[in-house]
Sequence to fold (642 residues):
Amino acid sequence: MPDAPRHIVSSYEQELNQLRALMARMGGLVENQTALAIQAIIDHNAESAQAAMEQDPEVDALEREVESRAIKLLALRAPMAQDLREIVSALKVTSDLERIGDYAANVAKRSLRLGPTGNDISLGGLRSMGRLVQEGLRLAIDALGQNDAEKALDVWRSDKAVDEIYTAMFRELVTYMMEDPRNIGACTHLLFIAKNLERIGDHATNIAERVHYSVTGAMLPASRPRGSASPETPTP
Amino acid sequence: MSLWRKRPPVSAPLGSTPLGSASSESSLRESAALGEPVAVPGTSGHRPSLGALLDLVPHPLLALDRDGTLRHANETAQAQIGDALPALLRNPALGQALRTLLPGGTGQVDVQMDVPVRRTLRVSIRCEGAAGGAHGGSRRGLLLLSVQDRSELEAVERMRSDFIANASHELRTPLASLIGFIETLQGPAADDAPARIRFLSIMAGQATRMRRLIDNLLSLSRIQMHEHERPSSLVSVAAVARRVADAHEPLLAASGHSLSIDIAAGLPPVAADADQLSQVLTNFLDNAVKYAGRPDRPATIVLSVEPARAGIDPQADGVVLAVTDDGPGIAPQHVPRLTERFYRIEDGPGGKVGSGLGLAIVKHIVGRHGGRLTITSTEGQGARFAVWLPRAPVPATAAIGATRQR
Fold:
């Protein structure tokens, strides 16, 4: 962990730390919510689904608190350089986290409606996708907590794999639906679930971009590594 | 532990705070509790800090401020759960417990992490408050966390249920065919000598398949059980690669494929489990032999070991082991799913069937080593299976070896 230089005004330092602690708390919540949502689909666990949905209000409340604190810091302390970038990034990251929470809650909700029909359809693809998304999210939130631009870059690079698996799942599910129209209900839910997971991955990548910017001051290129025919990892 | 209560109530020396970034005003004040020397009976001069004492305990211990800021993680904690610390500390259930604990109170929280490897940590918390002291404030004091890694216990439990589920499902097919043949041999084909010979050879094949499947399942389970323990002994990757290549010579000769070995000089040191590393390469080569051939021509397989360079990750220092072939390649929609258990590509070339576990095993081995597996393929032009392993932190490895005899 880079040991940040201290500020002269210690109450300012304290406020910054409180903001960071809130962000970490929100990150932990959202991470947990995503894990629960994925568990809800893979293990058909209704309790996990319920727990994931119940966390949503807390995430929303934290978002509002982060926002108001960040704005207060901006207004009263007039931060400069990295502090400024960090606080502005916090404003954006917090809404990314909130969106992730929403998607996770939605996945959990759909897992309840999926019902027993979902059992015949292989959930292997979703499991892999869930893992990838969770890995990216954890790495992004680690990067956020430690102000680690390197980790952030790792997330940014790995988003491609999620896109690829999403495309593959899309095809697979469409095939199921064509085979037997009775699958359409479950498959539609699964499609939305996959889409939501993919969006969670995207928001994790957003967070990584923000962290990279906040630490280095340099924006990553607008075009992300996309899942495509060329499988080699591009260098930034 | 009543060490904190022996502290003189007011004039705690602020002095040295060897405990990382004490940043806020209040935490500077509070860190005195940790940085402050502890009276050791019978010694007059040397007074170790609490942080130093925690370091002596061979069990992961954490000390936190009341607001949840990490003040000190002892050496064992850093060695065993260092990489999981941020994720652990932001866990909502743990945070909830930390916020609600009163001075003198204790609590216990199980934290489960799914990625990058599955871990279960049982955290026992004790709140050491300055109960009713001169400073009075309820936010003062320390939280002591003792972390028990239950990953292995959980893994054993999961292994049992997984094994039953997988084994019963995957063994049913060959078993059904075995039973079918046995019934035929007992009944209609009892006196048919040519059929008996043919059936017995099919049955032997099915039995071998079942044995291979069980072996693979067991080895996968073993690897998963220790997945949370990073290997610490240094291994010559080049020697492992050569050994595996030598062992594959007969198989390659039989299949007609050609193997070339390309081992770069000046490889950085890597901490690894030599047996598991050779299993990774063995599985890669087995796959290449099985799937890289085309009906009209044998494949050229290259086993390469080189220092990490751009391609996998330009920043990462380490070693890349790769097996590249010029076979038919893999369709892109299959690539991300190859490491799933029992995921097989339906129309595999030549209808060859593996156990569906080879790459799952590789994935877990790589996870244990903190490495990364990349599979790249262009259809029609071949595939490349590469594993990146991080450079061993040389001084750290030496230090762990010196201080902990295990």
